[in-house]
């Protein structure tokens, strides 16, 4: 319900900015609206708002870069190649002093992980983790991707350490879906190590999370 | 016959002619001595050097005026005359013993003692490195500012300020003006902030009750997980995560958009006037920083 209210507010802002011919404001309002629509599951509407921005030169390069990035996020699940193209355009528009490079790197690492290109994932995530100004959400995402890479390579001890670090951050961020992903990976690592207690603990936590929040990953 | 009788008989009139002559000479000598003393005091017997300067106007410049240096009398104005170029040439006689202070870049300024006192020439400046001015030399001249000049200058400076102040006051007091409208907008903003505060308080009360529920459930969680210290720690962390999640929901429920943007109808109607008014209105233009409507960057994990 809160997201519906937020969508209404962003739409009002968009209308107000259109009325005063403020394109920067319109761009920001469209980005915010697209984000909220994506959270509500109305991805087509979100994409339409973002598509409009990609073809409109009145928006600044930075706003268009963000539009491309959000399009890449929307396409990440269903069309990874298209997502990669959107992301490449976002990087080009955001260069040279891009403040969102960590988010871009993590998204590229996520796409690379889907292709099982673990070398690329490791290079990108270690780059993100080496930066000091990275926000907690991106740091935890990089740690989770790195843990997955290490797990796939059989580096179970380091993978466990990485996912524990990611879990520490995600508990602070309190995002149920991210906690579910973390505990799922921790359970797999614990199973590979042969730590039945930790595996059982992770399963219990996943069950608890699924009872507390309606998550798409709970049915898997 | 009668005078002859007196002259011959009254002893007071004996030698009367001589007595008159002696008295007259004595008076004459006394007056001459007095004149000499005055002349000496006035510097008539002191060696003097002639200097001159040119002025545009002769007002206040008179022969006999004092020439001063650092407030001490060092000479007099000897002659004031109009030149062929319609300038006023003023000749000064400066005592030679003071000429060491008068340099080529010295300036003569016409000053007045007090508001109603006599005018005099004040010699000023003079770089120590410069040579003393020679006889017949020319010094620079700076005319005095009369009371009328000062008043005129003051008037010419003050009038624009007063006019500007009047315009500003009219602008501020205009009920339909930008400032009044800006203040009204700020009042409206404040009222809305109070409403938001009230909503926040209500939501925080709900948060407290939620936290109370969490606290009530925590002992049961602890009972179930009392077997290991690590589990207890995890349970506490989970409770913290729940509280954080509830807090996040509360924060999200508060409209993030500035109220001025949410009230789009009013904004559209008055947007240009209001924005321009606030931009121009001091001190509002320094107090009201523009509110940024920056959408959050979605995390790469969404």
TrEMBL record, chain A:
InterPro entries in the record: TPR-like_helical_dom_sf
Name this polypeptide is given: Tetratricopeptide repeat-containing protein
Lineage summary: Bacteria, Pseudomonadati, Pseudomonadota, Betaproteobacteria, Neisseriales
From TrEMBL, chain B:
Residue stretches making up the Mce/MlaD domain: 49-125
Keywords per UniProt: Coiled coil, Membrane, Transmembrane, Transmembrane helix
Keyword Transmembrane helix annotated: yes
Annotated transmembrane regions: 20-40
UniProt superkingdom: Bacteria
Stretches assigned to coiled coil: 179-206
Pfam families listed in its UniProt record: MlaD
Protein name: Phospholipid/cholesterol/gamma-HCH transport system substrate-binding protein
Organism: Formivibrio citricus
């Amino acid at each position: 319900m809160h997201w519906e209210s937020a969508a209404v507010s962003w739409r009002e802002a968009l209308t107000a900015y259109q009325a005063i011919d403020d394109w920067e404001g319109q761009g920001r309002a469209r980005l915010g609206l697209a984000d909220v629509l994506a959270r509500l599951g109305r991805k087509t509407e979100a994409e339409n708002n973002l598509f409009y921005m990609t073809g409109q030169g009145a928006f600044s390069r930075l706003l268009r870069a963000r539009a491309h990035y959000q399009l890449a996020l929307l396409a990440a699940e269903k069309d990874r190649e298209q997502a990669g193209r959107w992301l490449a355009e976002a990087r080009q528009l955001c260069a040279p002093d891009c403040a969102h490079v960590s988010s871009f790197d993590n998204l590229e690492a996520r796409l690379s992980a889907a292709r099982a290109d673990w070398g690329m994932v490791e290079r990108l995530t270690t780059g993100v983790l080496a930066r000091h100004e990275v926000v907690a959400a991106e740091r935890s995402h990089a740690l989770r991707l790195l843990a997955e890479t290490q797990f796939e390579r059989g580096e179970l001890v380091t993978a466990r350490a990485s996912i524990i670090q990611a879990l520490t951050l995600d508990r602070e961020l309190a995002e149920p879906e991210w906690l579910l992903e973390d505990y799922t990976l921790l359970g797999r690592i614990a199973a590979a190590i042969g730590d039945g207690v930790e595996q059982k603990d992770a399963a219990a936590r996943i069950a608890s999370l699924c009872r507390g929040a309606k998550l798409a990953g709970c049915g898997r | 016959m009668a005078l002859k009788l007196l002259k011959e008989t009254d002893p007071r009139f004996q030698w009367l002619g001589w007595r008159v002559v002696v008295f007259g000479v004595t008076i004459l000598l006394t007056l001459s001595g007095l004149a000499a003393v005055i002349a000496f005091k006035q510097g008539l017997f002191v060696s003097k050097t002639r200097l001159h300067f040119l002025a545009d106007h002769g007002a206040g410049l008179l022969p006999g005026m004092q020439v001063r240096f650092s407030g001490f009398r060092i000479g007099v104005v000897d002659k004031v005359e109009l030149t062929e170029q319609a300038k006023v040439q003023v000749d000064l006689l400066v005592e030679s013993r003071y000429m060491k202070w008068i340099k080529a870049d010295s300036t003569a300024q016409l000053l007045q003692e007090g508001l109603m006192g006599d005018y005099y020439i004040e010699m000023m400046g003079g770089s120590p490195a410069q040579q003393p001015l020679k006889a017949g030399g020319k010094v620079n001249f700076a005319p005095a500012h009369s009371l009328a000049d000062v008043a005129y200058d003051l008037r010419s400076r003050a009038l624009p300020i007063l006019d500007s102040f009047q315009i500003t006051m009219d602008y501020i007091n205009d009920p339909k003006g930008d400032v009044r409208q800006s203040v009204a907008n700020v009042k409206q903003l404040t009222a809305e902030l109070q409403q938001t505060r009230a909503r926040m308080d209500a939501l925080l009360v709900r948060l407290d009750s939620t936290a109370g529920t969490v606290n009530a459930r925590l002992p049961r969680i602890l009972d179930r997980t009392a077997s290991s210290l690590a589990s207890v720690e995890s349970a506490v962390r989970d409770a913290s995560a729940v509280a954080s999640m509830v807090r996040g929901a509360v924060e999200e429920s508060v409209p993030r958009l500035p109220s001025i943007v949410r009230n789009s109808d009013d904004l559209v109607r008055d947007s240009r006037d209001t924005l321009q008014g606030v931009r121009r209105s001091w001190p509002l233009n320094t107090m009201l920083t523009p509110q940024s409507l920056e959408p959050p960057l979605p995390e790469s994990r969404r």
